[in-house]
Amino acid sequence: MYETVAFYIFSILTLGMFGIVVMSKNALYAMSALAGGMIFISGFFFILDAEFLGVVQIVVYSGAIMALYAFGMMFFDTTRDVSEKMRSKKIAYTLSILSAILIVAILCIPLVSESIEASYPAIENVGNIQMVGLILFTKYLVPFELAAIMLLVAMISGIVLASKKMDEHLAIEEDECEMLKEGK
Amino acid sequence: MITLTHYLILTGLLFAIGLVGVMRRTNLLMLFFSTEILLNAVNIGFVAVSKYYGDFTGQMFAFFIIAVAASEVAVGLGLLILWYKRNGSVDLNSLQMMKG
After folding, report:
1. Number of domains in chain B
2. Measured between beta carbons, which residues in chain B are less than 8 angstroms from residue A64?
3. A117: left (phi over 0), alpha (psi -120 to 50) or beta
4. Which one of A7, A17, A18, A57 makes the best mutation probe of the B interface by having the most chain B beta carbons within 10 Å?
5. What are the tens digits of pLDDT across the range A10-53?
6. What is the number of domains present in chain A?
7. CA A85, CA B91: separation in Å to the nearest integer?
8. Looking at per-residue confidence, does B81 or A88 come out higher?
9. What does pTM read for this prediction?
């Protein structure tokens, strides 16, 4: 009963939030709605008994990724409305609806076939977090280490890319100051 | 009672919203937001399948998708800031240099 109510409330909230993200013209509203939607999605994870993923969702998405976007937005002009020049609205909407139907069909195919067996079934009396640790550090150890290397590479590339021309901008400002002084 | 089909339909709807965003937006920052919606929609589907089949592989995949999303944002925002410094715009049309 509670599960049903929670599912419908979270569904409506998530769909509404992501609708705002897609339709809003203001970048700040879109970002705030996205952060809200991420937190509501973690609610689904808690309903589905995936506590570890729910916490990771809040920490990584709503914490790290949203903070990154917020910092990135300081570089852009966010007060101005986002200009959208759509050339072919009909094509875009038809394509998206068609692909959505296709995705639903793909996702429903496993329900038709009943011969699916769990390769890593849940063990009795073992909590979710313990189970995630057991599987992550045995069967998925190599992908886990690769993910760590990937995150390191992404961090270094992010720092290098974002800080590439920072000293040049400072130099330009100094030049401008000198020019202003000379003008006076 | 909530079944797997409910979750899969929700996943499809969220994915459709993300696709509409990807096709509708011309601002690159907004395109990144739409990509996040797509990844999150797929995550819900994976975790729901993992719960209803009693298999933990789905949760592992969702975990790795979150890691990929985090690194994608770091690299993408770096490139976006670089492009904005050079062009003064994050509009998709400003990327058309060949005028095809």
Report:
1. 1
2. 70
3. beta
4. A18
5. 999 999 999 999 888 888 888 999 999 999 999 999 998 888 99
6. 1
7. 10
8. B81
9. 0.82
